[in-house]
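Sample A.
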Amino acid sequence: MDEVVEDTVRYTYGTWRKQRGWKPLHIVDAEGCYFTDASGKKYLDFSSQLVCVNLGHRNRNVIEAVKNYLEKTPYLMPAFTCEVRAELSRKLVEILPPGLRKFFYSTSGTEANEAALKIARIYTGRHKIIARYRSYHGATAASLAVTGDIRRWYAEAVDTVPGTVFAPDPYCYRCPLKLTYPECGVACADYVDYMLSYDGNVAAVIVEPVVGTNGVIVPPPEYMPKLREITRRHGVLLIADEVMSGWGRTGEWFAVNHWNVEPDILTTAKGITSAYLPLGLTATSEKISEYFEDHFFPHGHTYEAHPLTLAAAVAAIDEYRRLNLIDRSRRMGEYLGKRLKEVGDKHPSVGEVRGLGLFWAVDLTKNQRSRAPFNVPKDKYSGAPLVVDQVAAEMMKQGVFVMSWINHLVVAPPLIVEKEDIDKGVEALDSALKVADEKTEKNAP
């Protein structure tokens, strides 16, 4: 173990894991769609790190924009303003879904969701939030409370805000209601209607329009419009968490655009600066912003609207446009999806391949007929070996990094990815899936 790794393990925490056995890879360089470790080995970044380096590594225009502003105004308290605060706000009005007209700038997706939940509760005067089980909205008290996955389990007794009610997910491959689309009539959305009819004091429904870490779940086309109609009818706000699905990742500026849905609040982060600097955004409707004209806005941070983060976002938006990356995500996403499905069809361990744009999941199963997963959340919680991690480890041996979570791989390369990069990643996946194939029930001893 080299000194950098040794001191990292000795003095810092590895997140969302038991600490024993952690040995992080020492990275020394990164450019484009690749990064390099201390031994000189080069890896294809097939998940854009945490689905955030959308522009690829070391985009010179973003770097220069930050350097220029660092020389000019390295910090301002948020009570002041500067050129990039106004410039970024004007650009956001142009590209966000219609109706979102006022913004709060923070430093992460977690903080963006904290702000959204606080705003929703104050604006409506109500406290409860409806979220979904296959979701991740952040690691601080309110955002963790609306997180449905195992990251809430450890902390919910000591570090969450009460008042969340969880709804079923539009996860058609393993429907929580044991139904089949389209015969189901999108019953998972109707269930939210039922909840709102019998559960009072609800301020908002928060959803990832395309679920991120928990499976890149693309809802049926009727789902988001139906959910929007239901929330409006009940006078409840709709919060779209686009921390991971925004910024061209799904082939639109924001995933809600696929269904022409206008949320009351939209949160995002990650790709807003291509993760070069930490920036979160909470965008609200004009109706919500009007409320705070004459009511106290009880929120703020030292690093709110930090000039360097805003400069990075302005430059990133310019790069998305200059490189035509939204359209490119759609085109390259079609190729990536085609290649992934070709590989999936060859392997008995692949249950479903699904996605939009350059945002895909390879969902594993030990039995294609029953759709039983190899592992479930409690396995991750307990630290049991996960089959999907073994597949990801095999891909790393071949120089391809891909993010794994419980029972699926998240394939989300930078939006600048080339076909030859996609081919390299898919070929590594094809080879690595043999590890899972050997563990299917058909092949089990």
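Sample B, a different protein:
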Amino acid sequence: MFPGGGVKIRLGGEMMKAIITSQDRKLVEAIQGSALYGSYQEAFRLATGLGLFLRLASTDHIPRVPERVEQNAFCGALNEHQNCEDCQKAHGHLRVMNQGGGATDLCFAEMMETAVPVQCGGRTVAWLWTGQVFVTGEKRRNFTEVGKVLLARGIPAAEVQRLKKLWEATPEVTDEKYRSVAVLLDAFGRQLGDLANRLIVESTPREPEAVTKARRYIRENLRDRLTLEQVSRSAGLSPHHFCKVFRKAVGINLVDYINRSRVELARQMLLKHDARVSEVAFEVGYQSLSQFNRCFRTVTGESPTEYRRRLLKPEALASAG
């Protein structure tokens, strides 16, 4: 529940273990630099008046420094002064509450915050964050208790007074509007998960030529059975050397990459009204429907049928069977 009687927003799913790697950091930075993310961030700000930013999976770190301006002024100033343990506890609590979906709650400073996981390949690589505002209908706000917490953290009294002014200037939104914001955020989190998978599958200008050759070979032969020997031969490397070069450049192993590539193609095919799930499974290179369903869920967090149901109109689903 929202403190004060509202309903806490939880959007279902299973808890995904967060493991931070250098490749995850690069991936999140690539998401932040994408046209999709930039345009949505601007539209979200104009439509809701709220900031929107990404944090790495199990940390409070915002990879790209310019994005930190999206934070509430009080929160940004507090983070610049020192890492607030109470903030970290509140954020950790939100991540646990999420259970693989989005959740909303009050932080220690009585501001409402929402975090939605961005998942790729069955793992949370980042959290999409918004809020840091007051919501109408909550208890009467008083800085006294917040100030006590800050003083107990060793922040000088003069600085606490400055923070108080920023806290008091925090915007307030209605409970109804904030619920809508959280729903929008969850939908965008799903889109970013799709984008993350595409970024992994696509080649990059600075990758080794052998990796580019391998990607091309996989793309052209995706519907066939692919082996390490075949792919490494196409790249002009021994299997052992190829595995090291490929994983370093792409961030995942060859089998995982092939599965993601097949799922990415399957997602496009599933949007065709007359395509059956079983036909798509074999068309993209899977030997059984159960294997396809398992790999599709691992990559996207949902089954092929659930994916279609979410994106296609009811009449299209009826014709697809």
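Observation for Sample B: Residues 22-200 form one domain.
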